[in-house]
Design goal:
Layout: H1 7-93, H2 97-108, E1 113-121, E2 124-131, H3 134-146, E3 150-160, E4 169-177, E5 188-192
Antiparallel strand pairs: 1-2, 1-5, 2-4, 3-4
Length: 201
């Protein structure tokens, strides 16, 4: 039987298998590297995109904050203008208030009642004067209650004159002006008046 040496063939086959293994290993390593590289690039792109979106949102938030600040400023300006308009309306409404009050008081004061002092504080009126009788003061109170401008008449006191010869009694009366709100700075200080008959009914 002839002798055949198979060792070179086996060595060649083993070397070929090793070469194939190394080739497969190299290809696997390259593919793994490419896969990791692609995944890394994908996530980096996503991160960069998210960072850009965050930056965009932050800029938009800053713009909205500025607009909110402008709106607040406009609201404050609006409130200030509304307060000024309300004050102007009050001033216009009470522009002729002093004249109307004097007319109402002149209409409410009957004959025999004399005013010596008139004081206005806001919507409150203080009348000081002299009266010939209590009945005349009662008539004055009724006239004040029926007035469209005056209300809440209150007689603080009435006393006989210090001079026993005098027939006049001293009195102090409080009234309220209705239909108007008090305007700041519109208070009128006490103003003495010459004793005279204010009016007759």
């Amino acid at each position: 039987m002839a002798y055949i040496n198979l060792l070179p063939w086996r060595d060649a086959a083993r070397k070929e298998r090793q070469k194939q293994y190394l080739s497969v290993l190299a290809i696997t390593a390259v593919l793994s590297f490419l896969l990791v590289f692609v995944i890394n690039m994908t996530y980096n792109a996503r991160i960069e995109g998210q960072l850009e979106r965050n930056s965009f949102l932050q800029n938009e938030i800053k713009v909205l904050d500025q607009r909110i600040a402008e709106i607040r400023t406009l609201n404050e300006t609006k409130k200030s203008l509304q307060q000024r308009m309300a004050l102007i309306s009050q001033l216009q409404g009470s522009r002729n208030l002093g004249t109307q009050i004097m007319d109402e008081i002149a209409s409410a004061v009957p004959a025999g009642v004399y005013l010596t002092q008139l004081e206005k504080k806001g919507t409150s009126l203080l009348l000081v004067g002299k009266s010939e009788s209590n009945n005349r003061l009662s008539n004055m109170l009724r006239e004040a209650e029926e007035s469209e401008l005056l209300s809440n008449p209150y007689l603080e006191f009435i006393e006989a004159g210090k001079d026993s010869i005098s027939l006049l009694s001293n009195f102090k009366m409080h009234l309220t002006v209705k239909g108007y709100e008090a305007v700041q700075g519109s208070d009128t200080p006490a103003k003495p008046a010459t004793p005279a008959k204010a009016g007759a009914k």
